[in-house]
């Protein structure tokens, strides 16, 4: 029998005004019950899906189509690869948001509808005014806020580099989280051929194949899970794996991503891909030497790393800023173009 995940740490009745100060200190997941219960969108969703749709439509300017992901009823909401991983089990099309919303209402009573999923749609671009009508101050610099709309769905475990606050605006969600170090036990698929941009776990959480994925119970033993209703939110720290399920016939999620780092910093995934290109195929002994260099200059770097070098001669070993980061980027670009 597989182990059961434990609960995500919960903070009930948090005053939204306290959120900005707390977000800066959290490094582990938190469930925030009722955080956005004051939103008119949540009030409408608790009344009915039709009321929630009416609330969304008042902000839809209709000038741009959204990208809708659709899958056959046989997918049972799982947005994933096809059987032999030569493609995917869904298709994408550009369609008016109002049409998507009306279609979701049409299928609401169907026991086995096709999956309809509008993922990660920039809120201010497609629904201007929604954020002002449904406010939440995060106190972070330049958050990217998106809306996710659909019926029942299962999104494979994946991770994001930014911190993430996800607020349930309609329907119910089940969120299953894993610490970053569970990567070996989640059986992650390709990095550059993915359903939606991020590498995903190949395990079907609804029916895990333990012959193919025998270490998955180890991951489950470290997992944390929560079921969220309208008005609830979950904080997902950077790089925590998260498996997301929409449990009802109409679901809306509003999430914000942000990175508490200077804007000049590059994407860490670029460094990982370059390391694969430059280091992965080296002989084992040489890889061990490079591991020592990375520990010294990156993972364990501190003031002592460069203290013996005169300040004017430290180059990239000195603290980086926008100017020096730009110089490093220029050097890398020239070297990669060789």
Automatic annotation (TrEMBL):
InterPro entries: Cupin_8, JmjC_dom, RmlC-like_jellyroll. Residues 116-273 form the JmjC domain. This is Cupin-like domain-containing protein. The lineage of its organism: Bacteria, Pseudomonadati, Pseudomonadota, Gammaproteobacteria, Lysobacterales.
């Amino acid at each position: 029998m597989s182990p059961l995940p434990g609960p995500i740490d919960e903070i009930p009745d948090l005053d939204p005004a306290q959120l900005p100060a707390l977000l800066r200190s959290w490094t582990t997941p938190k469930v925030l019950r009722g955080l956005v219960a004051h939103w008119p969108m949540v009030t409408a969703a608790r009344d009915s899906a039709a009321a929630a749709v009416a609330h969304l439509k008042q902000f839809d300017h209709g000038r741009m189509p959204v990208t809708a992901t659709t899958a056959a009823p046989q997918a049972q909401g799982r947005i994933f690869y096809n059987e032999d991983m030569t493609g995917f089990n869904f298709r994408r099309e550009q369609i008016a948001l109002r049409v998507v919303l009306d279609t979701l209402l049409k299928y609401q009573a169907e026991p086995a509808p096709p999956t309809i999923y509008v993922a990660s749609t920039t809120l201010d671009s497609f629904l201007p005014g929604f954020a002002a009508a449904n406010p939440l101050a995060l106190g972070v610099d330049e958050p990217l806020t998106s809306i996710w709309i659909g019926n029942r769905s299962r999104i494979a475990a994946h991770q994001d580099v930014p911190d993430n606050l996800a607020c349930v605006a309609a329907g119910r969600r089940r969120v299953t989280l894993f610490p970053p170090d569970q990567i070996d036990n989640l059986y992650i698929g390709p990095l550059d051929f993915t359903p939606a941009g991020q590498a995903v776990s190949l395990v079907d959480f609804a029916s895990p194949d333990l012959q193919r994925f025998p270490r998955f119970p180890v991951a489950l033993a470290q997992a944390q899970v929560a079921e969220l209703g309208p008005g609830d939110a979950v904080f997902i720290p950077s790089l925590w794996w998260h498996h997301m399920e929409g449990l009802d016939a109409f679901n809306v999620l509003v999430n914000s991503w942000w990175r508490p780092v200077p804007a000049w910093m590059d994407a860490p995934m670029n460094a990982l891909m370059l390391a694969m290109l430059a280091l992965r195929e080296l002989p084992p002994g040489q890889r061990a030497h490079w591991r020592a260099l990375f520990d010294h200059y990156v993972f364990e770097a501190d003031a002592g790393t460069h203290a013996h070098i005169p300040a004017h001669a430290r180059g990239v070993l000195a603290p980086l800023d926008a100017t020096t980061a730009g110089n490093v980027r220029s050097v890398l670009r020239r070297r990669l173009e060789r």
